[in-house]
Amino acid sequence: MSWQAPDRDEALSIAELREATGLTARTLRYYEELGLLPGVRRRAGGRRVYGRDEVQRLRFITRLKALGLSLAEIRELGAVYAIEGSTRAMLGRLDQLLGRHLDEIDGRLGELMALRDEIAKYRDHVASRIAEART
């Protein structure tokens, strides 16, 4: 489904935000509790209302999680942005975090390739033992 972000003044309920982001209400509340969704507005009855900024922030958080960043790292990015007051500082820190994750993935890929080679060699060994047993 193609979903359009609301106009700036449009308010979404938590159910509408769930539908727009694919996140559960529990996750949304948890992100708010962690400070990943600062300044969530509330209606008179205490119900949360969300707008374009929250939708964009949640999409950004979801993307960063898919790239391997932890919630603590994502929260740190928000803090860097709040302290420095610019996206330049946040983007610099994001670049560092992504570089570290890329290095970790490269290391794991190397380990997996070595394991793959070891399994292939051992499989060849097993195949030769099977062939010897048949003769």
Q: Can you tell me about this structure?
A:
The chain is an all-alpha fold. Helices cover 70% and strands 3% of the residues. The protein has five helices and two strands, in the order ααββααα. It has helices at 14-21, 25-34, 52-66, 71-84, 87-134; strands spanning 41-42, 48-49. Strands 1-2 form a two-stranded antiparallel sheet. β1 and β2 form a beta hairpin. α4 (71-84) runs antiparallel to α5. The N and C termini lie far apart (61 Å).
List keywords for this structure.
mainly alpha, Multidrug-efflux Transporter Regulator, Chain: A, Domain 2, single chain, 135 residues, two-stranded antiparallel ribbon
What does the secondary structure layout of this molecule look like, with pairings?
Blueprint: H1 14-21, H2 25-34, E1 41-42, E2 48-49, H3 52-66, H4 71-84, H5 87-134
Antiparallel strand pairs: 1-2
Helix pairs in contact: 4-5
